[in-house]
Design a protein that fits this description.
Layout: E1 7-10, H1 12-20, E2 25-31, E3 48-50, H2 53-59, E4 70-75, H3 83-86, E5 91-96, H4 101-113, E6 118-122, H5 131-137, E7 145-149, H6 152-161, E8 165-169, E9 186-191, H7 199-204, E10 207-209, H8 222-233
Parallel strand pairs: 2-3, 5-6, 5-9, 6-7, 8-9, 8-10
Antiparallel strand pairs: 1-4, 2-4
Helix pairs in contact: 4-5, 4-8
């Protein structure tokens, strides 16, 4: 994102984590209930305004979101990770062709819960200022590192040269995902629910795998697939 841009985050966890992050610039804090002032650091309380639910919804263009009475206008500056850092990681998730910001936010939260600290995303698909993305991530965008790229294929090729094994989740695969096939450094690729990862991405993968589910169910929501895969890995 542009270093000069600012945007709204909504929801208790998203707002409070954003306020804790000293790299963020805080422009406004809106609370629906003055009792919630106890959650705001005294150094920031001068920026607080108490507003009605109607006023809060107006500020976020009546977005279909549960703001929980917490809203903040911020500028985030420390989200991205340099390319050199991604090669030092052990496990990384790549998202290919996922545009639903709620799903991306849910994946971010789940990944961090299982100690995956880095995601690689297509910069055209990842909307950092999306209020839905930030709310669903529930404050984890302040903690996880994101590498944004315009060419996922090239990054995968570089990762392979740096000894990463590439696992692409594909519901049409005949191979069930099993942690026994993991390497020391792993990439887990998840594609869109409708089309999955692109063909060129699948071809670059060392393994095309799927999650074992009831055969009467066609597929899982992509964020559920991530949670299921990481549960199998038991990366905690």
């Amino acid at each position: 994102m542009s270093k000069n841009s600012k945007f709204w985050v909504a929801g208790r966890h998203s707002v409070l984590e954003a306020l804790k992050n000293t790299n963020n610039k805080i422009f406004k804090i809106i609370l629906q209930n003055k009792d919630n002032l106890k959650f705001i650091d005294k150094s920031l309380q001068k920026q607080v305004r108490i507003a009605s639910n109607k006023d809060i919804l107006s500020l976020i263009n009546n977005a279909d979101i549960s703001h929980q009475g917490f809203l903040a206008e911020i500028q985030r500056t420390n989200l991205e990770i340099p390319k050199s850092e991604i090669f030092k990681q052990k496990n990384i998730i790549i998202l290919d062709g996922i545009n639903d910001q709620r799903n991306i936010g849910s994946i971010i939260r789940t990944a961090y819960a299982f100690n995956i600290k880095t995601l690689i995303v297509n910069k055209d698909e990842f909307k950092e200022k999306s209020i839905l993305l930030n709310k669903t991530a529930s404050g984890i965008l302040e903690k996880i590192k994101i590498f944004k790229t315009s060419n996922v294929v090239n990054i995968i090729k570089e990762l392979k040269k740096n000894n990463f094994w590439i696992f692409c989740f594909d519901s049409n695969s005949n191979t069930f995902f099993d942690k026994k096939i993991l390497s020391d450094k792993n990439i887990f690729i998840f594609g869109s629910e409708n089309k999955g990862a692109r063909s060129i991405v699948k071809k670059l993968s060392d393994y095309r795998v799927k999650i074992k589910i009831n055969p009467e169910v066609d597929s899982l929501n992509v964020s559920t697939s991530v949670a299921s895969a990481l549960t199998i890995l038991n990366l905690n």
